Amino acid sequence: MSNARPAVVQDGPDVLVALRVQPRASRNQLVVADADSRLSGPRSITIRVTAPPVAGAANAACCIFLAELLGLPKSRVALARGETARHKLLRIRDADAASIIARLQSAE
Questions:
Q1: Homologous superfamily, domain 8-107
Q2: Of 45, 65, 69, 71, which cross-links 19 as Cys (Cβ 3.0–4.6 Å)?
Q3: How many other C-beta atoms lie within 10 A of the C-beta of residue 4?
């Protein structure tokens, strides 16, 4: 069993989603790997976006794509950490980790 932290974690009223962004992909795509049980959620999430990693375009595309996948307004998904890195931490305001995990697993 791995000691790695789950990719989706409840943080008070918000949910933190750790993921890897792959810019300049051929299409926007969600890749969820190493899914444990429905309670602990995935260990690894990758989002592939067509936007280039220039002037925050890939960051914006990542937030918009995730919001659309989850059926949430764009304003509820924000970049918390990793502005210039491939590994990012997104904050989803006023959300429940269990529902986010379920939506991610069904969207894949």
A1: YggU-like (3.30.1200.10)
A2: 45
A3: 10
